[in-house]
Amino acid sequence: MRVLLAAGGMRPEPGGVPLVSADAGLSADAAAAALRSGWLAARPDDELTVLPVPDGGPGSALVLPAARVHSRTVLHGAGPLGDIREVDLVRLALPETAARETADPEEGPEGAAARAAPSPGAAPGRAGRPAGSRRPRSATWFLDAARLTAPPADRALAGREAREGTTRGLGEVLAAALEATSAHDVLIAGLARGAVHDGGAGLLDGLGGPRSAPGLMAGRELVLALADDAPLGGMNGAGRALAALSNLGAGQVQDLDRRACARARRILVELAAPRVGALPMLSDSAPPGTPERTGPALSVTARGTGAAGGAALVLRALGARALPGPRLMARLVGLAAAARRAELIITTAGEVYDVPADGLTAVVGSAATDLALPAVLVAGRAAAPRAEFAGAGIAGVYALEGAGGAGGAWDRGGARGVAGRVEDMGRRLARTWSR
Questions:
Q1: Model confidence pTM above 0.90
Q2: Which domain holds residue 184?
């Protein structure tokens, strides 16, 4: 049997924010390796293809397939509290069609009509292309920017990041990445939510401030691969997760959120960016990968603005385009092509409380549905209704943790404990699905 292991990361998710650390769950490639080991122990003659699928969150560059990496450079930048972190800048080796459709959606299959006009909400300073013109041949790069703002597992340290942290280091690394790449290149930056919550003010400073940042971004193609589409503020905003991530009380979180949103609103006024296109989601009327459309005014409650404490909001105001990270990264790694060679697809996730259309579970399920293939999910905790999984194309759901925590927490024993349970699940899946 031909099986595709399109694994995602399996991380604990307090407040819906994955904790990425060496001993907190498994990375996507580690989850795939554990599944493979278990499956082959039970069915050694089956053909397994390992294809970890990142979502744009911290560490995404580390699980890119070797065939997709042309070269890799390490940049250094300051984390929210000033600690120096490494950030990978990867020049991608993509087939010409994939490069065009992934990083320049206007040139995708559905984009011909859209090429007649520039993106309607581009901020001042972003150069548009003439109607019907094509971008000169260029390179596509991926910057693992989310590593700079990855939240710590220590709740007290996360509280410090929320109170005192800044995204300035993120702005400085983005500036360095823009300088290291050509004016015609496409730079994809992975971003995710974290504990830092400064409304993007530090990022703007790191890019040179409101006077210099628009010039730095002028004519550049910056695409944000967002691990989730949370807004900065509002009832479901990024600030809401701070209580679960940190040791801060509800009142402290509310005060921090108000200040972050106030800063972000002032920045929007400074940058004078009245409108931008809405974040293109599968649930929107146009297919994924089409250009941004005229949407509601960019605000702190707009979808796709909460990543990196509001840095996503500021970058969009400066002209960056935002795309769902799981969908974009799946295209980068070649999920659709790999699925065509499979008879069964297995994906993994840490904690699943719902199944958003642009989340990795649904992206893998959609790839399977397009080919009338069964897709199976292995999750640490699966709390979404079965109907949601079925609607997303997932035929079977297997959780490491029983209902109500039966059998103990799925992530007990750290990475080694989780790997052992995933390997056991691989054996079970092989006995159930192999034919």
A1: no
A2: 60-329
